[in-house]
């Protein structure tokens, strides 16, 4: 019994490498998008807090 690999093993390995490379690119893109969304969410939260404090100040000054 011989321990030889099938002749198309190189193609299978190449296919796995291509798949892993595409998966890596996908994860990088998702990390960039997640960071952008978190940054925008923090900005919206800051604006909301500023608006709430401004509205509260206007409400107390009008009374």
Structure, explained:
Keywords: Membrane, Transmembrane, Transmembrane helix. The chain crosses the membrane at residues 12-32. This protein has 1 helix and no strands. By secondary structure, the protein is mostly helical. The model has no long low-confidence stretch (mean pLDDT 89).
Short account of what is shown:
This protein is mainly α and 63 residues long. Helix content is 86%, strand content 0%.
The whole-number mean of residue pLDDT values reads: 89
Sequence of secondary-structure elements = H
Structural class: mainly alpha
Count the beta strands.
0
Distance between the termini: 95 Å
Secondary structure: helix percent: over 70%
Identify the overall geometry.
rod-shaped
Please summarize the sheet with the most strands: none
Q: What amount of the residues lies in strands?
A: under 5%
Low-confidence stretches: none
What's the number of helices?
Answer: 1
* Radius of gyration of CA atoms, rounded to a whole number: 28 Å
How does the SSE layout of this entry go?
Blueprint: H1 9-62
How would you describe this structure in keywords?
63 residues; mainly alpha; rod-shaped
